[in-house]
Each structure stands twice: as C-alpha cells, then as structure tokens.
Q: What sequence folds into this?
C-alpha cells in the first residue's frame, strides 16, 4: 500500500503539469511506454520517506506500482473536479472546547524504549540520510 | 523622496523553498563605511542614486507569524492547553500519534481563526481544506503536521500599523501590510537538546495545540516596521482573545524573510530568520540581516537561500544547523477530515444542530472594538493626541486606568494624560510593574490631581506626594500634604514679603532684568520657591515679582 502512495506521489512529481482534468479530449488512452525511475528520484525518495529499496526487486515493485496507477489515465476526467476524499459530502464534526483527555503520562511512556524523567528520548536533532556517495546502497551501482 | 520611490515595489512574494534569482548587482566598489544606503524609514538616510554613483538598496521583509490559539483543549484532541506542566502530562493518544486515533476538530479554534480573519479584513473561505505536511522530526510523532495548504480559512486581508518618524515621538505615520492568508495548523512538541549525552528529550505537551499562521506579504522594509506590525497584531489578538500572544511564552512566534535588491531589479535571494523571542529582537534581527546581506553583496559575495537563527546575545544572525536545505513536504489532503464549511446569515442551514454550525456574520457582530477604533475613541472623547492613545493602549490596563482617573477628577483630561503617561508610567517602568500591580490606584491619583486642580498644592509638591504615595504605605494624598507641609502658601502678604526679600538680595539679577534680560526673572522665581520650600504658586510669584520690578512680560501659558 505504501508503494502505491509513493507511486502516486512520484507520478505527480515526474509530470507536474498534468492534472486529471487537463488531460485533453481523449477517451481510452494507453499510458506512455515505461520510463525508468531515475536514480536521482530513487535517492530523493529514500531521503524523504526513509524507505530502503534494498535491491532491484524493490525498485521493480515501485515501477510496477507506477504502471498500475497509470491506468487511471484511461478514464476521461474532462470537466470533473478532482476528488480528494470520499468524505467530501460529509459534515466535519465540531467538538466543544472541553478538556476530556490527557493525564496518561505513565501509559504513554510504557511503550518508550528509553525515557528520562518522563521525557521521551530521541537521537540528537535530525539525522538526515547520508548522501548517495556516502552510503552503502545498491543504488550506487545503478 | 528617494525613500518613497524606492519603496514602491509591490509584487507577489514567492512562497515555498525556491532559490530566488540572486542579484550580485552591477560592478560594485565597496561602500565606504557609514554610507550604507538603505531606502527605508525616514530615520535612515537613503543615498539617492547618482549622488555617489552607487545604487541604493531596497530591503524587503516578509513575516510568517504563528499565534497559539487561546483555547481549553487542543486543535484535534481533547487534551488540555497549558503552559508549563509536567512533561507529557497534557498528551492524548492522538497527540502521541498512536495508531488508530483520529483528529476531531475543536470548534473554538475555528471561531478564533474566523475572528482573527475578520479583524484583519480578510475574506473568510466558506469552504476550507486540511492537508498533511510531511517532515521528520522527533517532536512531530506522526511524521506530518495537519495544516491548510491548499485552501486556508482566510485570505487577502490587511493590517494597519503606525510608526513614529522622528525620535521625539511626535509625528506618526500609518502604514499597511497585506495579509496573504491565515491558516489553522497543529503545533509540534518541544525538543530539549542534550548535547552532552548526545540525545534529544521530547515533551509532547505542546504537540497538537492549535495555531493560526498569519502570512504577511513582504510589504515591509526594515526592523522597525516589522516590529510595529507585529506589535499591532499582538494587540489585536489580545483584544479579540483569540490568542494571548505573549512572545515570551511562545504564544506568538515570528519568522522573518529578508532580502535586498536594487530598485527596479528583481527580488534578491531571501534568508529566513528564526529564533526571535521578542519584538525588540525582531527589529534587531531584521536590521542586522539587512546590513549583513548588503555588506555581503557589496563585497562581491552571494546570499544563500538558507535559514538563520538570531543570536540575541551577540545581536547577529548565524546559519542554523540541522536544516536540510530545500525541503519537499509532499503535501497531500488530510484524508480523515472532510472540508470545513462555514456559514453566514444567508446560507444558514435550517435543519442543523446549531452547535455544529459556525455563522461568520454572528461572529462579526460580536467582534470587540479593535485597538485602532479604541484609540480613535480616546482621542475624540478626551482630546488627547494620537501618540498618547498609542501609549495608553501599549500598556495593558493603562487606558482603563486613565479613564478611571478622568472620571474621578475635575482636572481636564488633557492635563491628566501628562500625569498618567509621564509620571505614573515612568514609575511603573522603573520598577518593572504592570498597571495592575501599581501601588498608586486610579482613585489615589485622582485624589492627588484634585488637590493640584484646586491649587492647594503646586505641581512640584504634587510630584513629591506621588513619590510618597508610591511607597504604598496607605496614606492619602491629603495626609501626605499635611505631613510634609506642602500646602501652597495662601497668605499673599507673606509671599510678597518673601519676594521683596529676594529682590533686595539679588542686586545683579534685578539690574539685568531692568536692563531687559527678562529670562533672569526665572532665577528669582526659583529662589522664591526655594525660600518657600516649593510651597509657592509660581504664576503668582511671577506676577508679584513683575509688579515689584515694574516689568511687563508676555503672558506665557501656564502648564
């Protein structure tokens, strides 16, 4: 499922100018021939989502997911507003401003591997993924 | 004025992390120190092009302000909002991002955002959407923040603020900054960096608290403008009650985007300045960054599109560690929240639970008087100057104090204002007290001013009494006057005698006065005052002396 979400995002990133409705007047339309996802994009994805494609099979799975999503192009969406949630006709429930939760420090910290005096412990600051040249990944060879 | 011309650069601000087109500028010879040209406020001299052959710089300042919403519970959960509580005690399962939890929108937060939007003259979007902004940080347990990127709750407003253009604070000019949008979003938790043990401690009490992000267009050009705009916004938020906006408690956070360019050329590369903890530091940080960029560019360098932190101790900005350059937030719609629909009087649905309906017009009708309106009313009602009204509203509770004094005294409001702003306020400032903590109540001050008005004591004596009242020993002004024998001499004869005695003693001065140097009269008045231990009415003394010396002076208005 994660691959599908990533694939959707990769498509949008790769083809920025195309929205659903700007697709011209075509009906059935075959997707363009498979473009390989570049190493730069894969590296960028690993950086952003902290996923590890691990090996060529992982990349292949991503590739297939993109092709699967590309089938959406077969649908004519001229003049149709993009839907981003099946909840769009639902009412957004508004809660009253009362304090009803909290005060469960012990329970929350139960799951923490490390804690210091009721604080969660995390590694220092933000540790970004090292650059492509500097890390041990199969992507280097591609 | 060159400053005006140079500032006529509007244009839309380019949002998001973009590498602005840097302008190294024409072949620059280094500016001689002290002639850095900044086309801005009247305080700073702009070097007009052509005079020295070097083009002036136009600084551009845009602000992103996060105001913590004043509410009992958080934006999407029912945990409490409170400053300073035991770590992780105000955290619900949703705030900790435990699986299976869902966001539930807090009605009060929406109302706060609508109020703020209306006060800032924005258009309220009747349909707004929530999105996820993804990035990794220890204090963001979900890995994303719920915000409003596509369609925020309010857009296209404006904020008017005032500046003093001279150091005497007597001339004020009104400026406007456009508000691009206001959006609702979640706050993150707090990270405490423990470098010695190479770890970060995370407290999620603040995670999920509602924020209003107010995005201002880059219509400002220096630190002073930025500070004045933020101050006015702070007053508005506090008046509305939508946020307490105390910067020291992190309820109001300001990030400044700063760039410089030559007039007529495209905007320069901008830097973002963070870690600004007070309005004073905001002005300093912005001005420092402007100068730093000018110096850098004039020395042939370039400006990096980076984030810098303001170091208040050193008074400068430094590159911030821990920032990964261009961020890709992978915005996506928040799938768990349908669109937020707001109504007005016309579109109110008939058969809906009223608790589920937010009516923009209903909120509009109940907006309190904004600071600008309050100031106008004060000026109109009491005949004080605009700068007085600013000073009154600038201090919490001072306007109310002033009005109470006016109600309880016969002294004219125009005269009362001097006593409140010059005497009382300076005492408060000296002792770092708020109006609420003042040992001198409005009742006591009014009492004192009545004595002065009835001419039972002199102005100097009144100041002495005030100093005594300040000790807060519970004495009334009248008691102090009697104790220290400060009553004005009412006996005309005694006064005349003293005047005569002074005249007889000061032969040189008398000769000077008779020769035409009338200013020396003041010295004689001063001597009489000393003789009477400040208990003489200076106007009366002057008249008596003049009569005795047979000199006429022009009538000066008595203060």
A:
């Amino acid at each position: 499922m994660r691959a599908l979400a990533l694939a959707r995002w990769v498509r949008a990133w790769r083809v920025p100018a195309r929205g659903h409705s700007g697709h011209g007047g075509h009906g059935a339309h075959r997707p363009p021939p498979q473009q390989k996802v570049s190493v730069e994009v894969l590296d960028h994805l690993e950086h952003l989502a902290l996923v590890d494609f691990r090996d060529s099979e992982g990349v292949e799975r991503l590739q297939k997911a993109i092709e699967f999503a590309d089938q959406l192009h077969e649908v004519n969406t001229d003049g149709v507003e993009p839907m981003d949630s099946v909840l769009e006709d639902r009412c957004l429930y508004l809660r009253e401003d009362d304090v009803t939760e909290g005060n469960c420090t012990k329970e929350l910290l139960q799951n923490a591997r490390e804690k210091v005096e009721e604080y969660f412990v995390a590694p220092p600051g933000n540790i970004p993924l090292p650059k492509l040249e500097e890390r041990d990944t199969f992507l280097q060879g591609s | 004025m060159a400053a005006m011309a140079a500032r006529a650069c509007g244009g839309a601000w380019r949002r998001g992390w973009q590498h602005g087109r840097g302008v190294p500028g024409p072949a620059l010879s280094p500016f001689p120190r002290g002639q850095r040209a900044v086309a801005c406020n009247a305080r700073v001299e702009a070097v007009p092009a052509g005079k020295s052959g070097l083009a002036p710089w136009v600084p551009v300042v845009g602000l992103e302000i996060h105001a913590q919403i004043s509410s009992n519970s958080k934006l999407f959960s029912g945990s409490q909002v409170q400053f300073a509580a035991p770590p992780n005690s105000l955290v619900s399962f949703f705030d900790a991002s435990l699986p299976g939890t869902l966001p539930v929108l807090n009605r009060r937060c929406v109302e706060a955002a609508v109020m703020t939007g209306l006060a800032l003259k924005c258009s309220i979007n009747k349909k707004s959407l929530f999105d996820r902004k993804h990035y990794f940080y220890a204090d963001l347990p979900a890995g994303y923040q719920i915000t409003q990127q596509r369609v925020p709750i309010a857009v296209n407003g404006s904020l008017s603020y005032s500046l003093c253009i001279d150091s005497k604070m007597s001339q004020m000019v009104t400026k406007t900054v456009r508000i691009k949008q206001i959006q609702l979003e979640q706050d993150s938790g707090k990270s405490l960096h423990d470098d010695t043990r190479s770890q970060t401690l995370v407290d999620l009490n603040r995670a999920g608290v509602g924020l209003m992000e107010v995005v201002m267009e880059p219509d400002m050009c220096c630190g002073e403008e930025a500070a004045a705009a933020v101050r006015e916004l702070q007053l508005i938020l506090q008046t509305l009650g939508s946020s307490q906006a105390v910067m020291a408690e992190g309820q109001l956070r300001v990030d400044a985007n700063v760039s410089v360019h030559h007039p007529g050329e495209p905007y320069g590369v901008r830097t973002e300045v963070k870690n600004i903890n007070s309005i004073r530091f905001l002005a300093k940080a912005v001005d420092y960054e402007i100068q730093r960029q000018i110096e850098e560019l004039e020395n042939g360098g370039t400006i990096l599109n980076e984030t810098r932190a303001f170091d208040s101790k050193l008074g400068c900005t430094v590159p911030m560690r821990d920032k990964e350059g261009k961020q890709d937030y992978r915005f996506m719609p928040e799938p768990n929240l349908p669109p937020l629909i707001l109504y007005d009087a016309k579109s109110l649905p008939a058969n809906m639970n009223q608790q589920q309906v937010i009516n923009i017009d209903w909120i509009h009708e109940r907006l309190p008087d904004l600071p600008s309106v309050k100031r106008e009313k004060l000026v109109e009602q009491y005949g004080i100057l605009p700068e007085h009204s600013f000073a009154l509203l600038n201090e919490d509770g001072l306007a109310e104090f002033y009005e109470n004094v006016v109600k309880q005294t016969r002294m004219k409001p125009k005269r009362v204002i001097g006593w409140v702003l010059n005497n009382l306020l300076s005492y408060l400032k000296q002792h770092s007290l708020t109006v609420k903590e003042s040992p001198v109540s409005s009742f006591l001050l009014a009492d004192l001013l009545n004595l002065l008005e009835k001419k039972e004591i002199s102005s100097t004596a009144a100041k002495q009494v005030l100093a005594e009242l300040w000790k807060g020993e519970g004495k009334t002004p009248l008691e102090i006057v009697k104790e220290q024998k400060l009553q004005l001499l009412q006996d005309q004869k005694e006064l005349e005698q003293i005047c005569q005695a002074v005249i007889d003693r000061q032969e040189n001065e008398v000769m000077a006065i008779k020769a035409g140097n009338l200013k020396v009269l003041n010295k004689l008045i001063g001597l009489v005052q000393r003789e009477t231990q400040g208990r003489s009415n200076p106007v009366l003394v002057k008249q008596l002396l003049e009569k005795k010396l047979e000199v006429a002076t022009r009538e000066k208005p008595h203060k």
About this structure: The two ends of chain A are 25 Å apart (CA to CA). The first helix of chain A runs from residue 2 to 14. The CA atoms of residues 9 and 71 of chain A lie 15 Å apart. Residues 34-73 of chain A form one domain.
